[in-house]
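Input record (one chain):
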Amino acid sequence: MCGITGFAGFNNSDLLRRMNDSMYHRGPDDSGEYINLERKVSLAMRRLSIIDLAYGKQPMANEDQTVWVVFNGEIYNAASLRQSLQAAGHRFASDHSDTEILLHLYEEKNYEMLKFLNGMFAFVIYDLKKNLLFGARDRVGIKPLYYSLNNGVFGFASELKTLILMPSVSRKINYQSLYDYMSFQCVPSPMTIFDDAHKLAAGCFFVYNVNSHNFKLSKYWSFPGSTKKYNSIDEVSLREKLEKSVLSWSASDVPLACSLSGGIDSTALLGLLSTSGVKNIKTFSLGFSGQGEKRFDERITARNTAKIYNSEHFEIILSPDDLLKDLDDMVWHLDEPYAGGLPSWYIFKAMKEQVKVALTGTGGDELFGNYGKWIIFEQPLLQIRALLKPFLFDSSFFKTCRMIKKFPQGYLYHRCIPEILKRESVFHSEITKDLRPSEFFIQHLWDTVSSSSARDKVTSIDFSLQLPEEFLHMTDRFSMAHSVEARVPFLDHALIEEVMSVPADIRTKPGSLKYLFIETVKDLLPSSVCAAGKRGFVIPTDRWLRGVLKERVDSLFAKKYLKKQAIFNPEIYDRIIRPYYRGKTYLHSVVWTIFMFQLWYKKFIENE
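The corresponding structure, as predicted from the sequence alone:
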């Protein structure tokens, strides 16, 4: 696992070193640089040694040094690819480095190589003969890749904080990105929070010609709709795919651990690892101190599961003081405004003392029905209630009705802050006048899914937005902040395609929202896990906003500060914050989302 960076169009070895050093946390074991002064191309990486500890140094070149690569991730079918490449005449210098696989596969298949890769990855290849850079990101966006192209200067990096060290990348805020963040609590691809920087979207690749400055984006994989390959449950085939995915994604030359909550996904993951023969697994779970936080605490269930599977179990207890101490560091490592769950920070922080590799159940929810996010699109009564909900925030009836008519599904999909509230109470009027509604973004995704099933459409949207931009974004940043490689075996693309080959009404049912998954792994699930129901892996932010964080909230929403900032409505404290403190708890997620942006703004703009 690594952090990768580089640029083309100028030479500056000091800048390259600073960019690489900014990602030290992503790879404290090793670093490397490739600088071609004549071509004005520079590559660099930081390495966390997981596979082929002795021979995995990067940047890595082919035999005649005409092809160079920097690579972040793991290729889980590397062994079989190596065999086929050797049979085709390729010779390898390393013992079993998956980085070297990329070099020879590029020589053999060119851009078509992406179809043969199974794993999580972001890489950039420099082809000296063609003088081009070829970069790609894995199918579902597990590993990140940012890029920028301005006035003939191209740059890329694993993290945004690294890319913005380039003089050609300004810190001008993209207000459409900020506007969408307020609805989704994350910034959708391909945008970032800055005008001059972009995210390479999941399942995409780019080719940049260093001579002509021509830049081309292409998509090589799209999330599959229901193929209806099966008309009934094929649990045996699915179980085999689950076991194969978990076993291949657990390959490592160093010890590994699991994040273990009291939920179905992490429990099934531990069970699959154990029954596949993986030994000496360490498990980690999180709890909260204080009487008011018991409903967030899943330690007892996790502890019992750990005993069943004989894992070495660790528990972390979180207090309000811990959040105050670490919140600014979280904001820094997240790179972009983010208002989703934060507890994984403490899990990876604890894991750092024990292991380098951790497996998580991330993606299990989105793949297997996401606990009924689709139900609202199938039940008219729920739709009526959802359509009325915005009037808790605002009374602009006719404006809301026009929005519903234009973007019906976009309006029903879960958003943190409704459109009218954003325009009339959250933002300064000068900010919003040229921005499109966030509902349009969801409606566009909905309309482009070929399936007529609401369940398929919602799953596809989740794989375009919630999964890569919220959960995988957070998982990558928080694990890498502590130099831990996080793996997500439920997102193996072969497993995804197998699951989606089952019709939506078989995968999930109103009375059993993860029906197919539970039926497939029920022998691995203790009764206490099945009985517990879904509880989000969250921290008690409502309680903390009203307590230990209140002083910071008050300072960041003071009228004088907001006027100077010139982004938000100066009356936001009276319109939103004060009513929240007076008991209107439905405003909690609104306050938290804006508060987290303000922390980001202090860190990345005021303290640049």
